[in-house]
């Protein structure tokens, strides 16, 4: 049998549109990198607080070098982010833009999220090699991953934890006020447990993570405050049978990165006391590619999955589920590891993630 390749006509208009789109892609990629830099240097905050400044005055306010600042402003002005008055030589960040680019804008500060582009780029050489070998990465390969993840979590999880996230479990706030035992599995920077330890002094909080350096700063902060109801432990949760028994276990954006996601969930199931509850946040995409095409965050999520989530799991000997393992897979895994009741919630403040409430 002879199979003939279909001849596809070359569409000049389509080719030109694609080329023009990629001009935009290059410019937007450049803008993302410079947005990350501006966020870290506090430039958006300074612009929002001091509209109509010259580059010299803004450099003094922000504590940066004026020559480099002027180049950065060139990017922001030509990208339409910052307004420029050529007669006065002054720069202004419109309030509509400041609402998504300043620290005061959390949880809507998208400048925080642009930092993941730099994190991904920091392992490009290593990932080129892994594309050929199929091997994985470890956390030590990444530049600033724990720092960026902690800041992202601070505005998506920590800031909304008490008012928006915990209330998806009826009666949980009252139980925390009375006093229960809570554990965060894969706690990362530990900011969620720190927030709860401050908010609910009668409850006891424990954070477990593979990397002690991830929560070191938070642990020191808690110690300096004299918080006696918070403790952290460096622990490989893929190789232990028990870390204790708890009334509430949380896992924020942690399960899909694990060496053994099902084993991780089974450990959580074993760790719950009678009447206990598991609260899990994870990426709210689908495992089916076609269902993610209209998801406005899909290219970013697949990039982070390709450059971090998948290789981190593979590097531990895991399956490499990736960030886009899907709500469907999460629900199936929870059921397969013994959770009899699983509820899935979408919260208004967080368009990226899904929140799961699971009970044994």
UniProtKB/TrEMBL annotation:
Domain of life (superkingdom): Bacteria
TM ranges: none
Keyword flag Signal: no
Gene3D superfamilies on file: Vaccinia Virus protein VP39, Winged helix-like DNA-binding domain superfamily/Winged helix DNA-binding domain
This protein's record includes keyword Nucleus: no
UniProt-listed InterPro entries: Methyltranfer_dom, SAM-binding_MTase, SAM-dependent_MTases_sf, WH-like_DNA-bd_sf, WH_DNA-bd_sf, WHD_Rv2258c
Occurrences of domain Methyltransferase (ranges): 177-295
Keywords from the named record: Plasmid
Pfam family, one: Methyltransf_31
Domain (S-adenosylmethionine-dependent methyltransferase Rv2258c-like winged HTH) ranges: 29-103
Protein name: Transcriptional regulator
Species of the source: Pseudosulfitobacter pseudonitzschiae
């Amino acid at each position: 049998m002879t199979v003939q390749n279909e001849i596809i006509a070359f569409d000049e208009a389509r080719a030109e549109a694609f080329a023009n789109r990629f001009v935009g892609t290059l410019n937007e990629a450049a803008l993302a990198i410079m947005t990350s830099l501006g966020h870290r240097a506090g430039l958006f905050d300074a612009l929002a607080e001091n509209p109509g400044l010259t580059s010299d005055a803004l450099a003094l306010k922000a504590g940066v070098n004026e020559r480099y600042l002027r180049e950065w402003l060139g990017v922001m002005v030509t990208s339409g982010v910052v307004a420029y008055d050529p007669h006065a030589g002054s720069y202004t960040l419109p309030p509509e833009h400041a609402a998504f680019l300043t620290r005061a804008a959390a949880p809507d500060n998208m400048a925080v999220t642009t930092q993941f582009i730099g994190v991904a780029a920091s392992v490009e050489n290593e990932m080129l090699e892994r594309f050929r070998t199929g091997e994985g990465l470890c956390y030590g390969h990444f530049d600033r991953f724990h720092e960026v993840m902690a800041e992202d979590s601070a505005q998506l999880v920590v800031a909304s934890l008490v008012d928006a996230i915990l209330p998806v479990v009826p009666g949980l706030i009252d139980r925390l006020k009375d006093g229960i035992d809570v554990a965060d599995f894969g706690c990362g920077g530990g900011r969620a447990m720190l927030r709860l330890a401050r908010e609910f002094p009668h409850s006891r909080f424990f954070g477990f993570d593979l990397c002690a350096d991830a929560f070191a700063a938070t642990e020191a902060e808690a110690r300096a405050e004299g918080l006696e109801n918070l403790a952290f432990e460096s622990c490989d949760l893929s190789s232990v049978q028990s870390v204790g028994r708890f009334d509430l276990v949380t896992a924020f954006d942690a399960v899909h990165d694990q060496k053994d996601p099902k084993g991780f969930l089974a450990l959580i199931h074993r760790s719950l006391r009678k009447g206990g509850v598991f609260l899990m946040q994870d990426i709210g995409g689908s495992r089916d590619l076609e269902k993610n095409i209209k998801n406005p965050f899909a290219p970013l999520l697949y990039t982070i999955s390709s450059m971090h989530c998948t290789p981190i799991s593979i590097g531990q000997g895991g399956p490499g589920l990736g960030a886009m393992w899907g709500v469907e897979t999460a629900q199936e895994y929870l059921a397969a590891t013994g959770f009899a009741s699983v509820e899935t919630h979408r919260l208004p403040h967080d368009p990226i993630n899904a929140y799961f409430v699971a009970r044994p």
